[in-house]
């Protein structure tokens, strides 16, 4: 009976590969080389974690002193440089990416010439909000009501249909609040359209109008799926944004355990339904009534999952390496409450001093600050330069430490 079940699973996996064009899974043991498309901080932390497991890394990034390139060999070239992509493929046993806005042509080339277990289909879906929302709905998971918009007249009609307030977003690109506008009154429609689609007259980019969800809080779940189909998720993080940039992630999230459980179930349903390999970050709104609406996806390690580096049995970066190399996924258990606080350019000096000096307040609160700096060469206002994981007995103590050290106040 066990043999028959195994044969059925294998047959189902083969049918899935034929349907999606996915490559057959390969198990890559330590000693193999992982190629990373992108050399930012996510690639850096992935390389540091994977190197500890015995893997080698090589990154492709246009910046000469990229964060990942400081800790691993790097090919310095533009992301759309096909010769450089072929060189990455030649030097790698498996290729992954650390950001989703990868050139589609290069992604397709790499899947033809190398082993890319994440494939290009997932990128194709998550690079476009309309395709992403359709995929989430296909997995049986709710999203906020939305409409496709291609002109000011269509925007006005969609706003009348959905009702205000709404959020207008570009279908592609945009992050940390860029490429979007909140519309609260009808007289704001034209200005929002000009803001999100500046200068667009004859050739308007695809836009998405989303119904504004009145939410109690925002949470995110990092789910992982291995190349052979094993799925696990990390505990949900409660996320607090300031000026559209993630400020804090609080774990455990301050929502009932039943909502946390449902959030993990939804994230695992999406990562399974999309046949993703590696990590998938699922951002959600939690309403006062306890409803969950998925807001966005990211097919990679995520800022809100940085808490796992110090507070979980397995970090999100180790889990991603395990997933793409087809190793058994690691234990996602939370070992301690934690508050992750981002360090932006304008906070860098003060945050480093606060985390590194003898701190009586941290001792009094029972908080252990764990500092992670990304090695970016230029510190800019609003730019993520690092983060601090505050390990604590209670997340309230971690929040008190952030408040009393005046982080994010200057």
If you had to describe this structure to a student in words, what would you say it looks like?
Helix content is 34%, strand content 24%. With 410 residues, it is of the alpha+beta class. It folds into 3 domains: 2-126, 3-Layer(aba) Sandwich (Rossmann fold), CATH 3.40.50; 145-211, Dna Ligase, domain 1, CATH 3.30.1490; 217-404, D-amino Acid Aminotransferase, Chain A, domain 1. The chain starts with a helix and ends in a 6-residue tail after the last helix. The relative contact order is 0.11.
Can you give me a brief rundown of this structure?
With 410 residues, the chain is an alpha+beta fold. It is built from 14 helices and 17 strands.
Terminal CA distance reads 65 Å
The CATH architecture of the largest domain can be given as: 2-Layer Sandwich
Described by strand count, sense and barrel closure, the largest sheet is: 9 strands, antiparallel
Bin the strand percentage.
Answer: 15-25%
The number of domains is 3
- Radius of gyration, Cα only, in angstroms? 22 Å
What key attributes describe this structure?
14 helices; single chain; Dna Ligase, domain 1; disordered N terminus; alpha+beta; 410 residues; Rossmann fold; 9-stranded antiparallel β-sheet; D-amino Acid Aminotransferase, Chain A, domain 1; 17 strands; 3 domains; 4-stranded parallel β-sheet; globular
Give the arrangement of secondary structure elements.
Layout (H helix, E strand, L loop, with lengths): L1 H19 L12 E5 L3 H12 L3 E6 L12 E3 L5 H10 L2 E4 L6 H10 L7 H6 L2 H10 L7 E4 L2 H11 L3 E5 L9 E4 L5 H8 L10 E5 L5 E9 L5 E3 L3 E6 L2 E7 L5 H17 L4 E9 L5 E7 L9 H4 L4 H9 L13 E7 L3 H9 L3 H6 L2 E6 L10 E8 L3 H10 L6
Parallel strand pairs: 1-2, 1-4, 2-3
Antiparallel strand pairs: 5-8, 6-7, 6-8, 9-10, 9-11, 9-13, 11-12, 12-15, 13-14, 15-17, 16-17
């Amino acid at each position: 009976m066990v043999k028959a079940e195994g044969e059925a699973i294998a047959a189902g996996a083969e049918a899935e590969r034929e349907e999606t064009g996915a490559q057959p899974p390969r198990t890559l043991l330590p000693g193999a080389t992982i190629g990373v498309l992108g050399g930012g901080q996510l690639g850096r932390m992935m390389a540091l974690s994977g190197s500890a497991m015995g893997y080698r890394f090589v990154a492709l990034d246009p910046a000469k002193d990229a964060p990942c390139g400081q800790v691993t060999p790097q090919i310095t070239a533009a992301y759309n440089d096909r010769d450089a992509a072929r060189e990455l493929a030649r030097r790698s046993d498996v290729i992954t990416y650390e950001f989703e806005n990868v050139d589609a042509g290069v992604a397709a080339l790499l899947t033809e010439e190398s082993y890319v277990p994440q494939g290009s289909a997932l990128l194709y879906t998550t690079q476009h909000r309309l395709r992403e929302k359709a995929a989430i709905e296909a997995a049986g998971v709710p999203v906020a009501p939305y409409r496709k918009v291609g002109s000011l007249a269509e925007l006005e009609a969609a706003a009348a249909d959905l009702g205000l307030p709404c959020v207008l977003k570009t279908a592609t690109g945009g992050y940390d609040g860029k490429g979007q506008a909140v519309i609260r009154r009808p007289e704001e429609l034209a200005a929002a359209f000009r803001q999100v689609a500046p200068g667009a007259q004859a050739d308007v980019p695809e836009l998405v109008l989303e119904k504004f969800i009145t939410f109690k809080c925002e949470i995110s779940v990092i789910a992982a799926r291995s190349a052979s189909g094993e799925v696990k998720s990390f505990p949900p993080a409660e996320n607090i944004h300031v000026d559209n940039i993630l400020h804090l992630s609080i774990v455990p999230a301050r929502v009932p355990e039943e909502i946390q459980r449902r959030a993990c179930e939804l994230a695992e349903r999406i990562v399974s339904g999309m046949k993703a390999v590696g990590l998938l970050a699922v951002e959600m709104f939690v309403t006062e009534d306890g409803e969950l609406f998925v807001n966005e996806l990211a097919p990679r390690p995520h800022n809100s999952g940085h808490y796992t580096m110090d507070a979980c049995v397995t970090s999100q970066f180790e889990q991603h390496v395990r997933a793409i190399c087809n190793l058994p996924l690691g234990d996602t258990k939370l070992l301690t409450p934690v508050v992750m606080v981002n360090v932006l350019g304008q906070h860098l000096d003060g945050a480093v001093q606060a985390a590194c000096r003898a701190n009586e307040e941290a001792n009094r609160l029972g908080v252990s600050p764990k500092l992670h700096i990304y090695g970016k060469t230029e510190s800019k206002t609003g730019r993520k330069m690092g983060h601090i994981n505050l390990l604590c007995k209670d997340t309230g103590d971690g929040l008190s430490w952030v408040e009393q050290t005046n982080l994010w106040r200057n």
